[in-house]
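dumping this here before i forget
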Amino acid sequence: MVTLNIFSDPVCPWCHVGKAHLDQALAQAGEHPFVIAWHPFQLNPDMPAGGADRRSYMAARFGGTDRVAAAEARLVEQAAASGVLFDFDRIARVPNTLDAHRLIHWAGIEARQDTVVSALFQAYFVAGRDIGDREVLCDIADGAGLDAALIARLLASDADLADIRARDAHARKMGIDAVPTFVIGNRQAVPGAQPPALWARVIADLAAQAGAEGG
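structure:
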């Protein structure tokens, strides 16, 4: 088996696309060699705990509402071709994602990471829910088969806050400066939302390599 470490942020639209592309390739392959682990990377670690109004935040960051609207329209069109949905009009706030990353970490302990990551993307980009809100996170946890009451207690504490921040900082020291970034077998970094065809080639190459080594 090969570890596939994925550095991502639940408010990164290309991370949503990248996961969908990977999922499509894995479904088409059937059997695959990956053991997948999700890792924290905050696009804006200085985001206030309560988040920010999305419209004004995006306009300030990208140079005006017209530029934001044009970029989002292009993304929606490109993503729709792959069956990936966005509804930016429903998103009122940009959250701080530290708690969402804690939830992803705890989901990993219960082998529910993939389910939780998908649910976070759907909640934010399709339903427009505030994934910085702890009640929303507990609802997502419950839907993923986690103990929502336990998650609520953990979120109310400082559990794993330092660890998430340290892992985020370590990713940056490794040279990761954008997400999604996929690291295959701790050797090869693949940045960006790659198409399913690329992942199909990677899976085929790893299978051929394993066959050669086994033979």
